[in-house]
Design a protein that fits this description.
This protein is an all-beta fold. The strands form eight sheets. Strands 1, 2, 33, 34, 35, 36, 37, 38, 39 and 40 form a ten-stranded mixed beta sheet that branches. Strands 3, 4, 5, 6, 7, 8, 9, 12 and 13 form a nine-stranded antiparallel beta sheet that branches.
Length: about 575
């Protein structure tokens, strides 16, 4: 197949839309991970859910088959009652390689107000199927030690299950048609599903970098158990501990905590204003401990402006001795300062529970030049934040668009908020948030993912700039070496489409450079397109973010999706 080589393209078409997202986090010790992407886990898929008068919200789940051959996709919605953690699956059969499928919460049988959903991929035509009476897969290979017929947790099914990537798009006040929004919708948000390694790590701590009750914002945490009925801990205790920004972190008293029992397939909602010790004006983070596979989302909402931000939890990785693994460098591929009225806030959490973290946030132009920096000192398990439009002189200047590297003296995680409070009536009051990602460099060559996947790619109407529209911003985080990758667009059936019908888009970025991919810039792609894309990484590392924006919606039409990292550790 021929390739179309493109030199660096920067910030083209951003006047119509902006875009933010993030890669799922890869461990700093990649060799300890299984192949990424197996299964997609959604802690929260709403069905007629309310957020303090906002809503009702409805979810649409999109899943892409990352294998080259056809697979059957099994969607399991949590029920959390009786002895069956997840109900009988909704099955989409014979999904071709690279193809994507979108199903609404109603299709999945999600009960009001919402539920966790897990998605698994089984090779088509190999005799494996779901037995509703026994509540298990049957036809599994007898010689696979990782598989046993009475385990419906699906965690550790070895080589049977295929790789998938998934997103959920949550909209109000009515369901969307195949994750499409219109002027009839008011608020839009969502997130990318957790991968198996993010749910099933041999870790008991997960965290959310920012939760808040200040400036009209409030936060609800949705925590879900992905344990099955035959898991060792089908019913388990969890504890959420909150640490305030500007406080002492774990070196002092926490702001509050919440403990409860949760069964497999259940989801619990915690309004943080109900926690003793958390008052109006509070900003901080949340650490979640549990001895069963769990996931969580923090929904931060501003009801008066109908704005919504969603962050998904990440595991706190530790080594065999219980010490934090090195996660002391993180990447934010897209940062704004007064760019078409968009500004950026970065919230940094110290993952270490004993050591303070000296953090530097370094900002770069799309061409790779360093332009400014922030410094923070964060106590153990504490958090601090910066705002690019604040009083500090970052050297960015109004109209800045670029990237940032967040580095510390110990492990960290950061959330990057993008907010637009000002502007024309149709594009005011948008908000979105993504998590930074971590990748490690080993000498001259980075430990890089083999593939990045974005299951939901859309193009609106280029004549008006309205309609669901995707943009992706790429950033080479390596300070010395180039990164080379190919991008291919696919239609829902898994066939390449223009502008990559005959040749991929090949990108070569030098140190700290950026690249903008924006669907409105490709005239060959028809208006109203919906599909997916795959990034094949050939050299080095790449950090990427993706926004899906529709200014036609009544209030906040911006959502961020993580590109899913896939490693091949064979």
């Amino acid at each position: 197949m021929k390739r179309r080589s493109l030199s660096m393209m920067l910030a083209v078409g951003l006047a119509l839309s902006v875009f933010v997202g993030a890669l799922a986090i890869g461990s700093a010790q990649e060799e300890e991970l299984p192949a990424g992407g197996t299964g997609a886990y959604f802690p929260w898929v709403p069905y007629a859910a309310d957020l303090d008068g906002m809503g009702p919200f409805y979810g649409a789940v999109t899943v892409q088959n990352l294998e080259s051959d056809a697979h059957d996709l099994y969607f399991f919605a949590g029920v959390g009652e009786s002895d069956q953690a997840y109900g009988d699956p909704y099955v989409v059969g014979n999904v071709q390689g690279d193809a994507s499928v979108t199903v609404n919460a109603s299709d999945l049988g999600v009960s009001e107000p919402g539920a966790p959903v897990r998605v698994h991929s089984v090779p088509n035509g190999v005799g494996i199927s779901w037995d509703s009476d026994e509540n298990e897969f049957i036809g599994l290979p007898e010689d696979d030690d990782n598989n046993n017929g009475d385990d419906n947790s699906f965690l550790g099914l070895g080589d049977v299950l295929g790789n998938v990537a998934g997103t959920v798009k949550n909209v109000s006040p009515m369901p969307s048609e195949s994750a499409r929004t219109s002027a009839a919708h008011v608020t839009v948000d969502g997130y990318s599903g957790l991968t198996e390694e993010q749910v099933a790590f041999d870790e008991d701590t997960h965290m959310l970098p920012i939760v808040q009750t200040n400036d009209g914002w409030n936060t609800e945490i949705k925590i879900a158990s992905f344990a099955g009925e035959n898991d060792p801990n089908p019913g388990t205790s969890y504890t959420i501990t909150f640490y305030e920004s500007g406080g002492q972190g774990s070196a002092g008293p926490s702001s509050g905590s919440y403990s409860e029992q949760i069964k497999g397939g259940e989801v619990h909602t915690i309004d943080i204003t109900d926690i003793a010790g958390i008052d109006e004006g509070w900003v901080g983070n949340a650490f979640i401990t549990s001895n069963a596979p769990v996931g969580a989302v923090a929904e931060r909402f501003k009801a008066e402006d109908e704005m919504l931000l969603t962050n998904v939890s990440r595991p706190v990785l530790t080594d065999d001795n219980g010490f934090n693994q090195v996660q002391d460098i993180a990447y934010a591929p897209l940062v704004f300062q007064q760019y078409n009225n968009w500004n950026t806030g970065i919230s940094v959490a110290n993952l270490d529970d004993t050591q303070s973290n000296t953090v530097t946030i370094t900002y770069f132009t799309p061409g790779g030049s360093q332009v400014g920096s922030d410094q923070l000192t964060i106590p153990p398990r504490g958090m601090e934040f910066v705002f690019t439009a604040g009083d500090q002189d970052l050297g960015l200047g109004d109209g800045h668009i670029g990237a940032a590297i967040v580095s510390g003296t110990t492990a960290l995680q950061a959330a990057v908020d993008q907010v637009k409070y000002l502007g024309d009536a149709e594009d005011t009051g948008d908000a979105m948030s993504y998590l930074t990602n971590h990748q490690a460099f080993d000498g001259e060559v980075a430990d890089n993912p083999d593939m990045l996947a974005l299951p939901l790619v859309q193009k609106g109407n280029p004549a008006t700039g309205l309609g669901d529209t995707t943009g992706v911003q790429f950033f080479n985080p390596n300070p010395q070496f180039n990164t080379v990758f190919d991008v291919t667009f696919y239609d829902p059936t898994g066939n390449p489409v223009a502008p990559t019908l005959d040749e991929e888009i090949t990108v070569n970025l030098s140190a700290h450079q950026g690249f903008t991919l924006y669907t409105h810039n490709y005239s060959e792609m028809p208006a109203g397109f919906q599909g997916s894309l795959i990034v094949d990484v050939h050299e080095g590392n790449v950090s990427a973010v993706s926004n899906n924006v529709n200014y036609e919606t009544g209030a906040d039409g911006a959502v961020v999706f993580n590109l899913i990292e896939v490693f091949d550790n064979d």
